[in-house]
Amino acid sequence: MNSKRKVLISGASIAGPTLGFWLAKYGFEVTIVERSRSLRLGGQNLDVRGAGRAIVRMMGIEKEILAANTGEIGLQFVNRNNEVEAEFPAEGANSFTSEAEILRGDLVNILHEHTKNDVKYVFGKSITSIHQKPDKIEVTLNDKESELFDLLIAADGVRSTTRTLIFGDEPELKFAGLYNAWFTIPRMERDTQWARWYTAPGSRVMLLRPDNHGTIRASFSFLSDDKKYPNQSDREQKKVLKDKLLGAGWEEDRLMKEIDDNNEVYFDGISQVKAPRWFDGRAGMIGDAAYCPTPLTGMGTTLAMVGAYLLAGELSRRDRHEDAFAAYEKRMRPFVEKVQKLPPGVPWLAHPKSKLGVSIVNTVAALLASRPVRMVGQLFGNKEKDVTKDEIELPVFD
């Protein structure tokens, strides 16, 4: 019966292709629709950890992910003169750099390569309306073409338009009071294989990270309660970024120039998605569209892959989608709720307002990076490469 079921997935980033991989393996007919005209291969660093690492191992792509490592050797906290205040090597027990550190675009490409022969990809189109029927769901795309599917799953990110078609305004985007801009910039002689973190007064942070493509992935974040920025034009957003950067020091001039010249500056507020339900009839959502935890947790990729694996598995076990959806949510929601609990003081502690606050951040970082603390971490830490599961059961689905 599974071979007859047609599933449409919206979004060709990480959650969508992972879901497509497993559904195709279980005999479903899968189509992935993506509004971009091709794979979106940009983006910043991701890391695949814990249960996510176990899943990519089952998918047979773990070695490819490790081979596509960004080459980052660790994280340095620097001051405005580019002097190192604290250093966290990648191999350390308290490292900020994952063994499976990979660029978002590289992971997207790996997932596409392993699904393109079994999953139908439709690029340059998006869903404009849905109509639920007793035994099918009718989906209309922006080219006015309609098609019937058994199920529709939104996996198109935190700003999912498909989610709105299914649930309206029911899901809440819980703003964390933090904005972030990401962009790729040319590499310079002073750049190394270390990621460099700079904290500036005024609740601002710059982060420059090396990649395996000969460029640097830059990000700039700042605290603000103003919720209007995401709705502004690109020109207005760039002005906001430059205003916020002004006087920050360190690589301020470099990032200012790049904001002016770069056509691919991604700027958004950092928000969690809180949804009382993930399914309605024959439609549902996974990944950031359903339960974005924010990049602050470092668990977005893992949640996306775990959710995709578990949903496909539950659908493969049951003929009734209602039963599969219920079983999936029972497994997944406690894990999501745990991941979404941000530590106290996040993100405010890492974005101090005053020069004294900046000094405290760098002093604490230096203490954590000190030899005695590192030795304790090595005694009690668990190397990430040995972790296969974290606080959620991954059943083997037949």
From TrEMBL:
InterPro entries, sorted: FAD-bd, FAD/NAD-bd_sf, FAD_aromatic-hydroxylase
Pfam families in the cross-refs: FAD_binding_3
Limits of the FAD-binding domain: 6-339
GO molecular function, one term: FAD binding
Name this polypeptide is given: 2-polyprenyl-6-methoxyphenol hydroxylase
Species annotation: Chryseobacterium shigense
